[in-house]
């Protein structure tokens, strides 16, 4: 089980950040964009369905939908930023593990927005953000790496 | 300036355990910074420009703060929940107390009052709202309305049993009034009451203080507007220092 791609989508459903964790060609990036784009409908659906009187909805939305190659997980912040994570479709995944990664990605986003040079709603381009994201995602074993226990 | 705000322990609570260092900042530093900001902008620019600049700063900071403060909260649903969040958690984090009083006009009431009101004739601004009405119908009603000026232009499409729909966009905006008796950032301005004088002893002095306080309220207004705007509630915020140090913030949702 590996994370294939991480995406941050802004409040107006504008892509702010999309990164494939494996080297990918333009075509593959196109495909990832497509999968993430489709997942936005699923996010809206989840929010609409779960909303009842007296209902408390968590930010973590869980598995949005499986595709042939990926499993798509979603997370929605209070400021309407969606975090989409694509997992390679191999072995079953523990839900709380994904949730922990999502929380850490959210924390990273909050720290990034506290940067006075960050513009809200604009694409995120920061080497520090890239590095921090990699360190979060590396909780999961890389394809060539050992399939040992997870660092948390 | 958003960093020192987040972990703001009350002064004099004693040192934190050494193993868990938290970032701290004396509150007075922040107050001085705000005061200096206001002074600087009012020195450099004239009234409205300075106000806009200060509000823009507040807006930006509000956005960042709300991003941080809502991090561990479950999803906020409707507007009221968001306003409540601002009144409770946001206020607590910024001003160390909650809003004392929150009033709202439940916007439905206003619409109900509108039902008996037949607006003066005007070209229908929303032809797409009434797709079933043929255009000639509208034209006819309009010309008839010109002859009898106070007839509802939609009287023929909507029989008497139904109230006329408002021609102007219905007042969907909600108004929320946040009252804080003892706004922290105005505490210093209020000063002690003049000795041996009752309320309103010196209206001129009070008015001067009020005008002065207005300058310092652009920043908090921007903060509130930024917080609400970032949570998806577009609004305008007006502050009114009635009796220092109490202050009311009027939030109009647009």
TrEMBL record, chain A:
InterPro entries, alphabetized: Longin-like_dom_sf, Sedlin, TRAPPC2L
UniProt xrefs under CDD domains: TRAPPC2L
The organism's place on the tree of life at top rank: Eukaryota
Any Gene Ontology CC annotation: cytoplasm
Matches recorded under SUPFAM superfamilies: SNARE-like
One of the GO biological process terms: endoplasmic reticulum to Golgi vesicle-mediated transport
Similarity annotation: Belongs to the TRAPP small subunits family. Sedlin subfamily.
Protein name, UniProt field: Trafficking protein particle complex subunit 2-like protein
Organism: Edaphochlamys debaryana
UniProtKB/TrEMBL annotation, chain B:
Name of the protein in its database record: Uncharacterized protein
Region (Disordered): 1-21
InterPro entries in the cross-refs: NO_sig/Golgi_transp_ligand-bd, TRAPP_component, TRAPPC6/Trs33
Pro residues bias: start-end ranges: 1-14
Listed GO biological process terms: endoplasmic reticulum to Golgi vesicle-mediated transport
GO annotation, cellular component aspect: cis-Golgi network; trans-Golgi network; TRAPP complex
Organism: Edaphochlamys debaryana
Protein family per UniProt: Belongs to the TRAPP small subunits family. BET3 subfamily.
Highest rank taxon of the organism: Eukaryota
Pfam families named among the record's database cross-references: TRAPP
